[in-house]
Task: inverse folding
C-alpha cells in the first residue's frame, strides 16, 4: 500500500485525475512555449466591442482637430476650406478602407506583427520601430498642444510642466487599467462630446452669415486641392494607429461598414465646425485665430443669459485629445513589447509616461511654431504612415502570395 501510494503521488498525470490534469498540463506547456519563444507569447490586454471601437475612432478622429483644424485649413483654402473638407471625405474613407484591407490580411495581428510577417524580420522590425517613433512623437505633440492651450486660455499663471504632469499621470492610469476600461469610458465620453458640440452649433446658428463664404472658388482650384489633400492625409492618415487596436476587437460581420460609417460621421462633424467658423468669423479671422472654435464659444450670448460657455468647449476638447493620446500611447507601449518580444507591456507604461513627459516639453517651443513650421511637414508624415506604408504592405503581401503560389505548382 505504501509503495502504491507513493507511485500515485509521483504519477500525477492524466491517467490518475483524468482530463482535468491533462488540460492543466497543456496550459502549462503552452505557457512554457510562450516564455521560451517557441510559440504563444502574444501580447494581449482584453478585448473591446465594435461599438466601443467606433466610439474611440470618433473621439480620436476629432482629437486635436476641433481646435486647430479650422484655422489651418482656412489658411490653405480661405473661404473654400469647407469645400475642401467635404471633398476630402471620399478620399479619406478610401484611406480607411485601405487600412481595413491591410488589417484583413492578418486579422489576429497588429501592425507590428503584420510588418514583420510580411516584410521579414529585419525590414519588418525597421518599419515597426518607425511606427513606434511616430506614435510616441504624436503623443508628445498632443500633450504639448493641450498644455499650450490650457496655459494660454485658462490657467495662465500655471507652469506648463505642472499641466503636462497632471495630464500624463491620467494617461498612465488609463493605460494601466487596460484597453477594456478605455473602451467602456469612451462610450460614456462620446455622448457628452456630441452634446457639447450640439450646444455650440445650435447657439451659433443665429450668427451665421453666408456672405463670409463668398466669393466661391476665389483662390482657384490649387488652394482647394491643397486643402483637400490636407484633409485626406492629415486627419484620416492618423487613423493608422487603430491597426494596433483591431486585433483586440470582437469582430462582427458588418464591422467594416460600421467603421466607415462612424468615420464618415465624425468627418462631417468636423466639416460642420469648419463651416461654422468660416460663416461666423470669416476666413481672415479664422486663419489668424489659433483656437477659432474656442473663440466661437466666447461669442455665444443669448439674451445676456446664456454666455461664457467656452469652458464647455474646453471640456469637450480635453475629452477628445485625452482619448487620442491614450490610444497613441497604447499603440506605442504594445508595439514596443511586440517588437522586443515581451509578453506583457504593462512594465513599459511608467517609463513610457516619463518619456512622454520629457518629450512634450521639447518637441515645440509654442503652438505657433507647431502650426507654422512643423505642421506643413507633418502632413507628409501622416500620409507616409497612413497611406504609403500600408499600401506597400498590401503590395508586398500580394507579390509574396503570388510568388508562393507559382512556386508551389
Result:
Amino acid at each position: 500500500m505504501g509503495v502504491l501510494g507513493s507511485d500515485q503521488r509521483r504519477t500525477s498525470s492524466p491517467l490518475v485525475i483524468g482530463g482535468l490534469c491533462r488540460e492543466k498540463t497543456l496550459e502549462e506547456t503552452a505557457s512554457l512555449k510562450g516564455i521560451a519563444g517557441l510559440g504563444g507569447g502574444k501580447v494581449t490586454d482584453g478585448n473591446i466591442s465594435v461599438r466601443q471601437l467606433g466610439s474611440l475612432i470618433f473621439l480620436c478622429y476629432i482629437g486635436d482637430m476641433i481646435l486647430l483644424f479650422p484655422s489651418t485649413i482656412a489658411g490653405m483654402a480661405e473661404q473654400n476650406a469647407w469645400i475642401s473638407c467635404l471633398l476630402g471625405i471620399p478620399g479619406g474613407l478610401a484611406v480607411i478602407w485601405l487600412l481595413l484591407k491591410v488589417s484583413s490580411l492578418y486579422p489576429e495581428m497588429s501592425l507590428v506583427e503584420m510588418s514583420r510577417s510580411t516584410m521579414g524580420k529585419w525590414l519588418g522590425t525597421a518599419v515597426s520601430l518607425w511606427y513606434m517613433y511616430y506614435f510616441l512623437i504624436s503623443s508628445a505633440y498632443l500633450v504639448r498642444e493641450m498644455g499650450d492651450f490650457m496655459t494660454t486660455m485658462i490657467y495662465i499663471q500655471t507652469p506648463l510642466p505642472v499641466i503636462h504632469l497632471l495630464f500624463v499621470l491620467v494617461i498612465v492610469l488609463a493605460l494601466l487599467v487596460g484597453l477594456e476600461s478605455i473602451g467602456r469610458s469612451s462610450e460614456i465620453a462620446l455622448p457628452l462630446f456630441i452634446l457639447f458640440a450640439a450646444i455650440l452649433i445650435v447657439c451659433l446658428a443665429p450668427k451665421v452669415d453666408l456672405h463670409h463664404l463668398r466669393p466661391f472658388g476665389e483662390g482657384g482650384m490649387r488652394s482647394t486641392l491643397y486643402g483637400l489633400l490636407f484633409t485626406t492625409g492629415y486627419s484620416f492618415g492618423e487613423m493608422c494607429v487603430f491597426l494596433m487596436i483591431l486585433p483586440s476587437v470582437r469582430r462582427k460581420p458588418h464591422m467594416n461598414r460600421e467603421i466607415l460609417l462612424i468615420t464618415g460621421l465624425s468627418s462631417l462633424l468636423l466639416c460642420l465646425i469648419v463651416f461654422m467658423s468660416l460663416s461666423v468669423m470669416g476666413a481672415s479671422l479664422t486663419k489668424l485665430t489659433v483656437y477659432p472654435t474656442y473663440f466661437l464659444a466666447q461669442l455665444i450670448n443669448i439674451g445676456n443669459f446664456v454666455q461664457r460657455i467656452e469652458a464647455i468647449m474646453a471640456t469637450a476638447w480635453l475629452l477628445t485629445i485625452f482619448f487620442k493620446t491614450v490610444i497613441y500611447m497604447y499603440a506605442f507601449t504594445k508595439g514596443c513589447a511586440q517588437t522586443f518580444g515581451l509578453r506583457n507591456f504593462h512594465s513599459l507604461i511608467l517609463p513610457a509616461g516619463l518619456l512622454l513627459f520629457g518629450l512634450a516639453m521639447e518637441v515645440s517651443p509654442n503652438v505657433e511654431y507647431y502650426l507654422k513650421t512643423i505642421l506643413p511637414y507633418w502632413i507628409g508624415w501622416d500620409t507616409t504612415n497612413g497611406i504609403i506604408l500600408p499600401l506597400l504592405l498590401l503590395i508586398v503581401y500580394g507579390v509574396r502570395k503570388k510568388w508562393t503560389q507559382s512556386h508551389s505548382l
